[in-house]
Amino acid sequence: MRVLITGVSGFVGKRLVRRLAERGDVELFGFSRSLPAELQSMIEWRSIDLTNRADVIAFVREAVPRRVFHLAAMANPGDCRADAERAFAAQVTGTAALLAALDSSAKTLLTSSSSVYGSTQSSPIPETASLDADSVYGRSKRAVERVALASAQRGRHVVIARPFNHSGAGQESRYVLPAFAKRVVESTETGEPIVTGNLFPKRDFLHVEDVLDAYELLIERGESGSAYNVARGEGLSIGELLAILQKLAGTKHKVQQAADRLRENDPEEIIGDSSRLRELGWAPVRSNEELLREVLKAALESSRSANLRSAGS
Fold this sequence. Notes:
By secondary structure, the protein is α/β, with parallel strands linked by helices. It folds into 2 domains: 2-166 and 206-230, NAD(P)-binding Rossmann-like Domain (Rossmann fold); 169-203 and 235-269 and 286-306, UDP-galactose 4-epimerase, domain 1 (Alpha-Beta Complex). The protein has helices spanning 11-23, 53-63, 77-82, 84-101, 136-153, 176-190, 208-221, 238-249, 275-279, 288-312, and strands at 2-6, 27-32, 44-47, 67-70, 107-111, 157-163, 165-167, 194-196, 202-203, 205-207, 227-230, 236-237, 255-257, 269-270. Strands 3-2-1-4-5-6-11 form a 7-stranded parallel sheet, sandwiched between helices. Helix 1 links the parallel strand 1 (2-6) and strand 2 (27-32). It is globular, with a radius of gyration of 20 Å. The termini are far apart. The model has no long low-confidence stretch (mean pLDDT 92).
């Protein structure tokens, strides 16, 4: 089967390419602005910017995919704030071009975000909650959902996934769990305190592989034109997550809150209700401790590599 993955150079995209390539029963096609060397033998790839409508359409028509995992986007909320125009162009223009170019028999999984709900919802948040996005990132995801729904109404098979927080080895350290793991390792090496922002908000985290399990299920069994939360359904505070990381590292360093890292109007709790997804047979199989152990291991390996490079220079 021919499968197209957009955003193959991203954290989730790279994981999905490896997962599908290992099975050997699919032809993989993908585009992004760059491609890691280790994936080059696994996928037929083009360097395409999602905002380039003509290039997107041409490649999709060449690939003729039966399944499409649409992951490409400006994934970091900070990047979206810095360039709102590009965030919307990437989401809306690129998605409209992609869906328009697809054969009517193709099935598409479009990744949205829990950010479409905004920061004032009561947890656990169901899919029926109002879409009160209050960030550029959330509003751009809400806009792309409208594009997807319009396409579904015209007969395309499009399922929307709304993932909550997820992580794993390979995620950039500007995201909270890899950032904390990096600080725990650095604190162990230097003896300096771990500097953080607000430790009290509760967040719903999944291992990225559980998220991919959900995506694969949804593209086959999800209802076209419908949205599904991808969430554990329970939360831990940021402070609890940091404490588990310290325990796993065998350390207990001082934690110091810094005023410049505190976010204004940081919601106390963001937890998703994934009942609809669970009705299809999905459930997370990897615990938060397994997730944190993997992220910490990646931070340790990164630190050792950096120290070796420094020693050799």
